[in-house]
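Now for one record.
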Amino acid sequence: MKFAVNYSQPLVQLLSEGLLQIDLIKCPDWDGMLKEASLFSEITIHFDLAVGLGKTLTVDFDRIATLKKKTFTPHVNTHLVAPRNLDPDNPQEMQKIQQLWRDEVGMMIAHFGADKVALEHFPYTLTTPHIRPAADSRIFSDVILDTGCMLLLDLAHARITADTLGLDVRDYITALPLDRLVEIHITGIKDHSGVLTDHFALSDEDWDLLDWALTEIKNGTWRKPEIIALEYGGVGSTFVWRTELDVLKTQVPKLFQMIHG
């Protein structure tokens, strides 16, 4: 398993000073960022792809394939989403979105192979009711099993979704096809403007959930993923204000030890 951390200016500062050890820098497919990050570490790319909106029809798969070959990106990720006007209680709409999910994932599989496409769900909150079916563990799992693609498990997304649904997060995760796991994302969550939000520093609950996940992997209960990525930190107005150098300095070494220890 390789340990990746989101690209951020504090991260590359600490790497340049020799104060952190990581395996990979996790980046979006932004040419400028990829060039800068490559000065400090090998790169893994997290693509801004989604199935459920019809946008896969216009994706430049040749560019993705080229970037994949140039970096340590063993699989191409995509998110299971739905249009904001989706009515989850309308059987006709649900039938349509279910088919669209499978058709779009199928297009990606045709380009890269089923074992090179990893599906991830977004967190479901009461502010995103249209996401509910995409985050339902049974529906989400069925898309993976029907298409033969792989699983990208975001522990924070699972925590938020389970909290919204009133479920135990471990029960929610255990219902997923963990024998198809290829990547794990970790980050802290907390209440932000009345909504549970991710991409914060890890709290005790986050450390406990990761420790459980690593135990399940080491016991062979779950498939061993290729990458475990810390999604703390970033660039732009969404992430800069919650990217603290001291958090990276404290939490990254602990995570590296947990993953490689």
Remarks:
- The radius of gyration is 18 Å.
- The mean pLDDT is 96.
- The CA atoms of residues 28 and 47 lie 6 Å apart.
- The domain at 2-260 is CATH 3.20.20.150 (TIM Barrel).
